[in-house]
Amino acid sequence: MKIMGRRERKKLQSKQTILDAAVKQFTAQGVRETSIADIMNAADLGIGTFYNYFESKDAVLLCLLDGLVDELRTSVEGGMQENRPAAEILESAVMQAAQLLLKNRFVLPLFLSAASESARPVGKTSRPMTAPAFKSIFLEIIHRGQETNEFRKDIPAEVVTEMFHSMFQAASFSRLQLSFTENVQLKVRLILSGLTARA
User: Fold this and answer.
1) I need a labelling partner for 101 at 20 to 30 A (CA). Which of 20, 74, 87, 180 fits?
2) What average pLDDT does the segment 29-51 reach?
3) CB burial readout 53-74, b (16+ within 10 A) else e
4) pTM to 2 decimals?
5) For the chain, first and last CA: distance in Å?
6) Distance of alpha carbon 121 from alpha carbon 13, whole angstroms
7) Residue 148, phi then psi, degrees to nearest 5
């Protein structure tokens, strides 16, 4: 295991300070209203330092979204190591993703934008965009459920994954008198009931 030197630790600390400041500013006043100067004032660092780590506010948001994905992946890996049923892991993962997006609502527009970009035909995207954040995690769980005969195999795992991923978009724009997480949970249960392999 490589031990970080003082300079590397300081760089890592500065980057985390910027991220923490960005979260506070985005939460308090929204992404659009937050300037890079606002972030760096909150971080108590010079504006030039920002560009040592990030190209733009979008780059900060992508980094924060990646952090949420890492958090979810760690949780899912724990469930898999415990050999919990795939349906249980999948429902837990989707609900945890919903909670993370709700808690960090400032990344939701970027998350939805990434999902929309990924649905376009190859070569039709106007600019490079991150792959939908939680998609690979859901796909891994669904493949596992199919391999263990918990989930139906007649529906491609990629199709099911798209359904799970699109639930967040549907719940975000829903006009029903349900909270975001309640909406997602009902959709999860409905999809799982159709996905579970029949004896």
Assistant:
1) 87
2) 94
3) bbeebeebbbbbbeebbeebee
4) 0.81
5) 48
6) 40
7) -95, 10
Averaged pLDDT, 71-92: 94
| Counts for the chain of helices (H) and strands (E), in that order | 9, 0
Amino acid at 116: S
Q: Can you tell me which residue has the tokens 């900060």?
A: 60
SS3 call for 132: coil
- Say if CB 112 and CB 172 are below 8 A apart: yes
Give per-residue burial for 13-35: e unless 16+ CB within 10 Å, then b.
ebbebbbebbbebbeeeebeebe
Q: What is the pLDDT of residues 139-148, one digit of tens each?
A: 999 999 999 9
User: According to the model, what pLDDT value does residue 114 have?
Assistant: 60
The CA distance from 134 to 190, in Å, is 19
